[in-house]
Amino acid sequence: MKNNLIKGSILVGLGSASYGMLATFVKMSYKEGFTTAEVTISQFTIGVIGLLLISMFSKLFSKEQATNAAASASSVAATAGSKPTSNWKSLLKLMFAGTAMGLTSMFYYLSVQYIPVSVGIVLLMQTVWMGVILEMFLHKKRPGNRKIISVLIIIGGTILATNLLQSSVTLDWRGVGFGMLAALAYTITVYASNGIALHLPVIRRSLYLVIGGLIIIMLIFHASLNMDFSFDIFWRWGIVLALFGTILPPLLFTMGMPLTGVGLGTIIAAVEIPVSVLMAHFILKEPVNLMQFGGIVLILFAVVLMNIEKPKRAA
Question: Are residues 254 and 200 in contact, defined by beta-carbon separation less than 8 angstroms?
């Protein structure tokens, strides 16, 4: 039990750290003259190819196991006198949920084009309080006092982390707007993908989510696929972005979250924030002052406060 918890924590931590590196890589690609369209198209295209290859190899190694499982499922369905759930409907739902994933990447990458990475990741983390509001509307239930306090702490931490109290600091409204849209899309991604087609294998779920992301990216940026499109992005940055953005994180999260549980998993996933800020600070040389670090610590504290379990009273 303890070993599973440690294993799950490591998997979730690695997935979060992978996401945390993305914005720095995107900024570096921008410095080389690549565009958001080139970055996102290359990331999701290579991501689909990579997951498709992994899926094919995994099927070869577990063909017999899959056949037995399918036979067992058919037997159960026949005994119950009902038809198994339509597989194509589950796949369509996954692809639809994946469109939100594609929009998250697009808005986030547009955001860091205008504002520092340290500010972009803080705006993306507004998904925490957005999730509380979405949960309130979906379940028609007022959030508990601890969640409300956590949301207020996150808002306070955001003010500090984005350096808004410094009168000399001016943030580009386009970056802030895209950052908030990224947070909204990320909120939808989390709630939509976590409850869809859970009966399917991890790799297959990840594949169809990324396919959905690629579809929406191609619909938005199809006009960019002209003579000016630089296909150098595929080998220059596409492989790195696909690996850390669309291949490793979904697989690591889907394997790790069941072992840690949602509460602990969400706390560990918050490691994405310091990883992103530190990467930008040391590699991109983005300045981060003590006030901003203080705001980030407050946001991390709020995530922990929101997800720690209440101690159970003895009977």
Answer: no
Write down the residue that tokens 């069941």 correspond to.
Answer: 258
Q: Are the beta carbons of 58 and 203 closer than 8 angstroms?
A: yes
Residue 181 tokens, joined = 């849209």
3-state secondary structure the chain: CHHHHHHHHHHHHHHHHHHHHHHHHHHHHHHCCCCHHHHHHHHHHHHHHHHHHHHHHHHHHCHHHHHHHHHHHHHHHHHHCCCCCCHHHHHHHHHHHHHHHHHHHHHHHHHCCCCCHHHHHHHHCCHHHHHHHHHHHHHCCCCCHHHHHHHHHHHHHHHHHCCCCCCCCCCCHHHHHHHHHHHHHHHHHHHHHCCCCCCCCHHHHHHHHHHHHHHHHHHHHHHHCCCCCCCHHHHHHHHHHHHHHHHHHHHHHHHHHHHHCHHHHHHHHCCHHHHHHHHHHHHCCCCCCHHHHHHHHHHHHHHHHHHCCCCCCCC
With contact defined as beta carbons under 8 Å apart, do 290 and 152 qualify?
no
Amino acid at position 265, single letter: G
Query: Once rounded to an integer, what is the mean pLDDT over residues 114-138?
Result: 87
**What are the distances in angstroms from CA 22 to CA 4, 70, 88, 263, 279?**
28, 38, 32, 24, 9
Lowest-pLDDT range of 28-32, 118-122, 134-138, 306-310: 306-310
Angle at 275 between CA 189 and CA 114, to 5 degrees: 70
Instruction: Count CB neighbours of 63 within 10 A.
Output: 10
| Top-confidence residue, 48 or 203 | 48
Of 49-53, 82-86, 180-184, the least confident:
82-86
Joined tokens for residue 189: 């991604």
Tell me how far the alpha carbon of residue 295 is from its chain's centroid. 22
Whether residue 311 is predicted with pLDDT greater than 70 in this model: the reply is no
CA 67 to chain centre: 32
